[in-house]
Amino acid sequence: MQSAQLLIGDEWVSASDGATSETIDPATNTVIGSFAEATGADVDAAVASARAGFESDAWQGMTPDQRGKVLWRIAELLERDADQIAALETLDQGMPSFVSGGISLPLAAQVFRYYAGFATKIEGKVSPISIPGNLTYQRRVPLGVCALITPWNFPLAIAAWKLAPALATGNAVILKPAEQTPLSTVRLVEICREAGVPAGVVNLLTGGPEVGKALVNHRGVDKISFTGSTEVGQYIARVSADDFKRTTLELGGKAPSILCADADIDAAVMGNVQGALFNTGQACGAYTRFFVHSSRVDEYTTKLAAAASSLTIGPGHKADTIVGPLVSQEHLDRVDSYVQSGRDQGAELITGGSRVDGDLADGFFYRPTVFGGVTDDMTIAREEIFGPVLSVMAYDDIDEVVARANDTDFGLVAVLWTKDLTTAHTLPPRLRFGTVFVNQLPLIDPGAPWGGFGMSGWGRELGEYSIDGFTETQSTFLNLA
């Protein structure tokens, strides 16, 4: 059994009222740990601690090179404990071990190394002005206290890509992980302290939505970086307007996958199955709407269903598992309700469409589901399901498919499958999505921005864009006359 406390300043403490909640293994529906349920008083204490940490000599007096070394050390410690942390991530979230150990952990370490290098490269500039006898220059300065609110689907990786740039730019933070999956974030915070992050600079609050809401409403918080649902993002945007908090919001997605008539169907099937069912479809960039040229749609649908139904379903810790459990009973019920809506609205269920029974009945396992004959007005084609549900739709020409792909509230990710070089270059600019992949999986790299158009959020994370997101521009005028 894991037990997690709050980190406020330099002390690991229980919630001020002693309240705790439990976290479960979604593969077995058994309790694996408990965590402190932070109160409003704990939020106040964490914000005060972060402010003190931000203003402390230990943090403000640290040179950029020293900050970079601390971030580099965090990466080293993540790699030192990689097997342990990956196993914890799989236990708490359910993701297959090839995802937790082969993708999430390496990406987290890579992100810290990337921003360790940025710590010494946050530059300003000197501006030519027309005031006689004046010198003007700009600096990038940290925002102050940043609340980092992370989701349950990739707890460690997303915490890393928020925390690393926040620290590289000299901010203090309060990390608030999703209540479903707090354990790997607790371990990350322990590593930060071991690596030499000064007291108060990284604080941890665990608990449910009320904790996040208190952070969003707190006047002592200068920045909210949130990844999660569009509905919560809308709430954050409204509340943050009251005191003009800086916000970065990475929200939902409904990624179209466009297969041109000349696409390599076998490669597209393999790539789309992996892109759609990565982490059991619990990814905002998951491929979910498959627009297939009418001349190839029957072939594609048959092959896609065969590939999806052949994948091994099981607990994440088993080496051969490709599709793990959904994160909770609540989420499984939500996914199943979308599947039922697809049936009710006339889509053709090709494969899947039910919970897994037998030896896996205690866990939250759902069969990969493929629908054919889907139309653009169906619920499964319009709303984010966040599960292993794939919808196939036919189209006849490029102009048509561009319009249909763009006909969504979301604009995070799209993918294009074609052998034609001209199409590969000319079609992506017509798609209203933050990232367009061509003939590949939805990959993430620290050097490339991540974020979306429309209701997929505000701002960009990763790359140099995160440096902008965690700093303000300050001008200095010097009278030299």
From TrEMBL:
Transmembrane segments: none annotated. It comes from Aeromicrobium chenweiae. GO terms for molecular function: oxidoreductase activity, acting on the aldehyde or oxo group of donors, NAD or NADP as acceptor. Belongs to the aldehyde dehydrogenase family. Keywords: Oxidoreductase. PANTHER family: ALDEHYDE DEHYDROGENASE-RELATED (PTHR11699). It holds the Pfam family Aldedh. This is Betaine-aldehyde dehydrogenase.
